[in-house]
Every structure is written in C-alpha cells, then in structure tokens.
Amino acid sequence: MDFEKLVQVYEELEKTASGNKIREVLAEFFKQVPKDDVQIVAYLTLGKIASDYEDVVLGMAEKSVLKAITVASGQESSKVNKLMQKSGDVGLTAEEVMKNKPRTLVPLGKLTIHELFEKLHKMASSSGAGSQDLKTNLLAGLLQKSSATGAKYITRIALGTLRMGVGDMTVLDALAIAYTGDKSNKDVLEQAYNICPDIGIIAETLAKKGLNEVKKVDVYVGRPIKMMLGQRVKSLEEAQKKIPGEVTVEAKYDGERIQAHKNNKGKVTLFSRRLDNITKQFPDLVKHLEKAIQEKDYIVEGEIIAVDKKGVPQPFQVLMQRRRKNDIEAYIEKIPINFKVFDLLYLNGKSWMDQPYFKRSKELGKMIKKDSEVMLTERILTDNVEEINVFFHKMLNKGYEGIFIKSRAEDSVYQAGVRGWNWIKWKKEYVKEMVDTFDLVIVGAFYGKGRRSGNYGALLCATYNKKQDQFETFCKLGTGLTDETLEELPKMLKKYTLDKKPVRLNAKKEMEADVWFEPAIVVEVFGAEITKSPFHTCASGLALRFPRFIRFRDDKDAEQATTSKEIEQMFEK
Ligand code: ATP
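That is the input. Now the predicted structure with adenosine-5'-triphosphate docked in place:
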C-alpha cells in the first residue's frame, strides 16, 4: 500500500476532535487495507513500528531529524533551523521545508508502507560507530520519497511524537467494527490482547483468519501477559464476604512488579508492570533466577524489593535508584534485590493460567530452590478474620505496605489484565480511614502565579474510563509539587504537548487548561475525599478534594491509571 493513503488518514485524524469519529475513520480505513498490510498499519496508526515489549527504540534526537530534513531538501541548515525556531514543531518544519525544496529535487518514486516500515526498523536497530549518520541518511531517503505532508508524519514517527489521540483500545474498537461489523466483538479482541498485548498480531490474525482464531491466541514465552490486579474493600469482613472460606494471605511488598519469562533455549526476559522489557536493568535478577529455578521454560510473577547487605527489606525509594540506564553494575553491588514470587503462569510447555491459585502456588513452591534471592511471598492460610488482621499488623511492622488476600477456590484462575475479586488488597491507608492513593494521568496544565509564575502552577489530572476509552478529569493538582518537580515538569511534558485538547479527553469548559498534553504521564496522588462536582467529568461528576502529589508512576502508562469505575465504587462505599 502507498504511504500516501495512510497520510490522508493521518490528516483526517489530526482534524478530528472526537474519540468516536476517530474510531469511525480508522474502521473505514481498515476495511480498505490489504490483508498483508494490516499488521504494519496497526502499528503505524499508533506511531509505532513494534509493540512496546519488543524493545525497538526509534526515538531519534531532534537534531538528527533536522539534519535529515536539511539533507533531503537540499536547503541550508540555517534556513531549516530558523523555520524550526518559528514553528517549534519538527513535523511542521519538515512539511514547510519539503514543500519549498528546489524543483530540481524530484521525488524518488513512491513510498510504500512496507518500505517505510522496513527502513524505520533498520534505523532502530543500527547502533555503534556511524549509526547516527546511517539513521540520518535513511530518514533523509524516506523524506525524499514522500510528499511534504508525508514528511510531517515520518519525522514525527522518527521522533516518537506522532500524537493522533489513538490508543491501543481505539485500534481494537476500529478492528472490531471493520472486520466483524459488530463493535461488541471488541471484548473478544481485548481478551486476546490481555494474553497477547501486540496490536499487530491481533490485527493480522483477525484480518487473515477471523474472530475464532483470535479467540485461540495463546501464551507465548518471551511475550508479556497483561498482569492480574486486585480490588479494594472497606473492611476485612467485606473481604471475607467476597472470598469466603480459606484464603491465602500474603505480604504486600512495595517494590516493582516483574513478570519473568524463561524460554526453552534458556533465555530469561523480564517485563515491567507496563510490559516494557527491563531485562537490561536487572542482570542480577536474571542470575538469581537461573540459580533458583531450573525448569526448562516458565513464566512467573513477583515483586522485586531492595534489601540491605543483611537481606533486610528497604523502602521503595531505595529500589527506585535501580531504575537506570548507566552504572548498572555498581548499583547491583550497592542495592541488592530479592524477588518475592507469587504466581505461576506457564511451566514446561503448558499454560497454568487456568489452574486455581492453590495449585499454581503449590507448584511454584516446588520449583524454587532454597537459599537463594528468589523466594515465595510470606504467607498464611486461614479462614479467620482475626488471624488475617494479626498477619496484616505483622507485615506492617516489617515495613511492608499491607497484605493481599487471594482466593484458593476452583475458579481462582489467573485473570490476565483484570482487576477482579480473586485478589483483594488491604493497605495501611485503609485502616487509618484515609482514601487510597490514585494514579492519575496529566492531561493539562495551568500557568502559575506569584512564586510559580513562568512555570506550571497546577496540573489537570484525569482518570481512565475503560468502557468509553476516554480520559475524565478528576482534580487540579497543585499541592505537594516541590520546586524541583515544578522545574522538571515542562521538560518532562514537552514531548506530549498538544495544540488542542486531547481527543480522548472529556473535560468541561471550566477545566480549560492553558496547555494540553497527550495522556501519557501518570502521577500518584493522595486525596482527602471524593465529592460530587459539576466541573469534573470523572464518573459523570466526581472530584478529588485536596489532592497532593506523591510521586511519578513511571511504571504505568495512561491506560493503567485508576479507572473512573474504581472511583465510582469508592465513592459509593
Ligand atoms: P495496581 O498494580 O493494582 O494497578 P498499584 O501499582 O498502584 O496498583 P496497588 O494497587 O497498591 O499498586 O497494589 C498492587 C501491586 O502490589 C501489584 O501490581 C504488585 O506490584 C504489588 N504486590 C506486592 N506484593 C504482592 C503480592 N503478594 N501479590 C500481588 N501483588 C503484589
């Protein structure tokens, strides 16, 4: 397929201000895409060339992209830089420059999406000496083969800033409409997507083999599975009502969730909560796993925690220092880790996700060698609320966050990507009669006054409405932001700045921000109370009173923010 066809769709999406319209435009487009191109188109509509877990990093530096524009257009670099300064947008600069390039430079034939995709992959995979030049030249070649408008989008893809307001769920919606004619089939696609979070594979399977084959999409070692999550309750008695009988009660550690995969060739891969491949960050965990579990292949899940030299657990802030790209070896020495394992999803060629929790736990216990840095989570089995409470306080004394109460019933299967009632969390905040913290997406900012003038004074934060695939405003956040955070914010958010309200954001006119952002950055926020509000759109009018910033949640993406439904449930309670 010609890239220009996709360019027309990008143009239409860019003009669109409603989430529903975006779905319609995409669905209509998918109907026309040849089956062999569907996979590529699915990635490119998201501005990507692979799924996040594949660790294919394109994100070129602005400087290199500007150089490519200069090479492709045959213009003076000073002219290109001047235009860039004027527009502040690389994409617009590319369009403008390519529109006015000398007539002697005729386009070098037509650019197909296959060629674009292949060259972008080549750029992503080149490394080492000379790779910068290679990338710039490849990009320049692509720009020469496309229209000026096409150049606008190619440069944005190369920078990783194509912001069309399209999310994974938007593409699944569009695919359901295009290939099954029935929007409700999105649920089937989403279920498959929870086990195989790769939009390209889902799109291609649906287009080429149909919905029934999508239903059969299975676990694949080395490809992450969306993680199972737990519900909240108001009291331990309520937890007992929700999961009657004997339960497993485990320590709830405040560390980092990891899904560890080992394939039958012995390769270990680690995935984060947002399903990024973070194997390079934790080479020590790979070694610990190789020592502790000797099975042929497996997928296990647990929480990494930092420990001191004596093995005593350390707070979350200590572990955070391990989130780094440099000095990894030094920090392995400085901040050792333990891996507290709690689930088994796959073992020796077979999925274990449909097994009840007590079976998965039992097998997991058998798999792990003693005296290693990998161990089962601390736990008790009980049906007694008092015992649960005693265990909870013991865990708090150890410095942990609380407990997880987990069902052992026959139906306590691993529910990929689901926040279900098979797991219930109970944290110290709940006991102090405080509201839980919320993970909210930054969607806008208001300029500050007084001491904060020239900087952002408050952030507009939103929850995610999963059903509607839209973001809904919940609070204006100004408290708890230190001077350093305020300085950091504009740099951090620059990449996500939009010139209009995000397409998937539902906001009232009273919440018209000074600057809008593509929903991407998640912050953890503490609040005093959830109240009704005519100004916010969360669950048709709920707001958080006295919100206070706690920290950035780099381990979550926008769609993993607290959902509007969760807020509604908390409010009802
Ligand atoms: P969530 O991960 O549920 O979206 P969150 O990251 O804000 O939310 P909480 O809701 O407070 O965290 O707790 C869930 C997280 O607790 C899990 O994702 C996991 O990282 C961590 N955790 C710690 N101990 C356990 C355990 N024993 N079983 C399951 N999860 C645990």
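The pocket of adenosine-5'-triphosphate is lined by residues 229-230, 250-253, 257, 273, 303, 342, 377, 404, 425, 439 (CB under 6 Å).
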